[in-house]
Amino acid sequence: MRSSTLPILFLSPFIVASQDGTLDPSFNGSGTRVNDLSFYDDRASAVVVQPDGAIVAAGWTDDGVTTTVALQRLLPDGTPDPAFGVGGTVLSPLAGHQRYAYDVALQSTGAIVLAGLDYDINLDGNALLMRYTADGELDSDFGVGGVVSSDLGGGAAFQSAWAVEVMDDDRIVIVGERGEDGVMCARFSAEGELDTDFGVNGVALTGISFGSGLAVALQDDGAILAGGYRIAGKGSDWLIARFRADGSLDAGFGDAGVAIVDVGGGDVEILKSLSICSDGRIAACGYKGSTGTDYAPVVALLNTDGTLDEGFDADGIRAFPYSAPQWGQAHRIIAQADGTLLVSGFRVEPGESENNDFFLMRLLPDGSFDPTFAGDGRVHTDLTGAQDRAYGMAIDAEDRIVLAGHGSGQQQAFAYARYTNTIGSGLNTTPHEESLSVFPVPSLGTIQINGLKENSTLMDIMQSDGRVILQERISPPFKVELPATLSNGHYLLQFVQEGHRVTLPIVLSRNTPW
Q1: Which sign does the torsion angle of CA 3, 4, 5, 7 carry?
Q2: 271-283 mean pLDDT
Q3: Residue 183's closest CA among 244, 238, 250?
Q4: In angstroms, rounded to a whole number, what is the distance separating the alpha carbons of residues 73 and 62?
Q5: Binning pLDDT at 50, 70 and 90, where does residue 514 land?
Q6: Three-state SS letters, 64-125
Q7: Staple 456 to which of 302, 418, 475, 480, CB 3.0 to 4.6 Å?
Q8: How far is CA 181 from CA 204, 258, 268, 299, in A?
Q9: What are the backbone angles phi and psi of residue 310, rounded to the nearest 5°?
Q10: Are 188 and 212 in contact (CB under 8 A)?
Q11: Are 192 and 171 in contact, with CB atoms under 8 Å apart?
C-alpha cells in the first residue's frame, strides 16, 4: 500500500496514546473514588452526569433500622460538591418510612428526579418519586414537599418504580411493578401528577401477570420501551414491551406489543437495562443463571420489530460466563453513536473475603469484544479489595464513562470509577450505501472493498473518534493491504462516492480469536 498525504510514520502518535478503557487520572487522581456518606451501609444504584460535568449518584443508606434515600454530587474532578447539600451529600429521612432510590434522571431545568420504593410503617410499598433542586433541596413545587408516593391505582398491593426517564417536555416515565400485574409503565406530568392521557389513569400494563419492569428507554416518536422479566413456571424470561405515546401496546412489536426473550441456559433470566441504537435497534443486558453462584452477564440486540438481530453473535444473544467459581451480572448498557455497546456490572469471586470487582466492556456491532478497548475489550476494577459492585453507568460530555455502585471497607460506601472512551459521533459523514461492503470482517490485514463506483478515489483510515491516521488513493480492484504498523481494532474507512462522503466500518484482527 502506498501512502500519500500522510506518511506511515504518522500512525505512531495515535497507536501509543492512552487506550480507551483505562482509568481516568483526572478523576480524583486515580480514576476511582470510594466515599462514605454515613456511618452505615451506603449504596449508589444509579448515576447521571449533568451538562456541566458534575456527577450525580442516587441510592440509599441503611443503618439496620431505617433506610434513607441518599444523593451525592461530585465535581468533574471527583471531589464532593460543597454547594450541594452538606459537603456534596443529601440524606432525606422520614420517620416511619423505609425509602430506596433505584434510578435518577435530570429535567431540563436542572432538577434531579429520583425513582424508587417507599415502605410505610405498615410495610405498604408504593412507587416513589422525589425531585431535588440544583442545590440539593427537595422541591416544594413537586408532589407534596418534593415527594410523590403512589400506589398507581393498585391499592394495598406492592408497587415500586425501578427505572425512570425524563421526556423532552420534562414529563416523567417510570417502569416497575404493581402487585401481580407484571411489568408496569406509568407516566407523570413534569410536576409529579399521573398523566391521565397515558394508559388507564396514567398506568399501562402488558397483560402478562407476574414479573417486574426494571428498565426503560424512550424513542424519538414518543413510544416507550419497558423491559424486565416475566415469571413462567419455576423460572423467568426477559420481557420487552413497547407502548405507544398513549400507553397502548404497539402491535407491530413482538407478539402484540410484547417480546419474550429466552436467553437460554438458566432458570433465572433477568433483564436489567435497555438502550436504543442510532438506527433504532434495541440493546439489552442482564444476566442468567440457575443458582445464585453461577450468574453470567448477557447482552442481546433486537431489531426494531422486537425480533432478535442475528447479525449480533449469530443469534442476537451473547453470554459472558466467568470461570467457576466466579460469576457476574450486567446491570447497564449504553449504545454509542458509532455502533459500539458499553456494558457494565460486577463479577464475584466467592471466598472467605469475597472479592468483587466492577466490570466494563465495549462490544463491536457484531457482539465481539472491541480490542481497542482496555486491550481485549473488557476491564475489571478492584476498588477496595472487598465487595465492589457497579450498578449505574453514564457518559459525560467528553465521552468518558462513569460507573457508580458500592465498595466495601468496614461498611459499604458509594463508589465510583471513570474511564477514557472515544466514539465516532462527531464524524461529518453519511452512512455507507447498501451496495458498499468490506470483506472479510474481521480482517487479518487485507481488505476487499466492493461496490465503489469511481475509477479511483481517496480513502481515509480513521480512528473511531474521526481522526484521520492515513490517507491513500485507491483504484480498482480496490484490494488494500493495511499497514503492518496498524494496531488491532475498530476503524472507519471514508471515501468520496459520487460527490458524497461515505463511511464503512472495519475491524482489524491479526491473530486474535473472535
Answers
A1: positive
A2: 95
A3: 238
A4: 19
A5: very low
A6: CCCEEEEEEEECCCCCECCCCCECCEEEECCCCCEEEEEEEEECCCCCEEEEEEEECCCCCE
A7: 475
A8: 10, 14, 19, 26
A9: -75, -5
A10: no
A11: no
pLDDT at 3: 33
Q: Which amino acid is at 266?
A: G
Q: For position 2, what pLDDT does the model report?
A: 32
Check whether domain 8-12+427-508 has CATH 3.40.50.10330, yes or no? no
* pLDDT for 331: 98
| Cell digits of residue 154 | 393498585
> Is the Cβ–Cβ distance between 30 and 71 less than 8 Å?
no
504's grid cell: 464503512
Are 445 and 482 in contact by the 8 Å Cβ rule? The answer is: yes
The domain segmentation of the chain, as residue ranges, is 8-12+427-508
317 touches 261 (CB < 8 A): yes
Q: Please tell me the distance from the alpha carbon of residue 392 to that of residue 408, in angstroms, as a whole number.
A: 17
Q: 110-121 as b/e, with b when 16 or more CB fall inside 10 Å?
A: ebbbbbbbbbee
Give dist(CA 512, CA 424) in Å, integer.
23
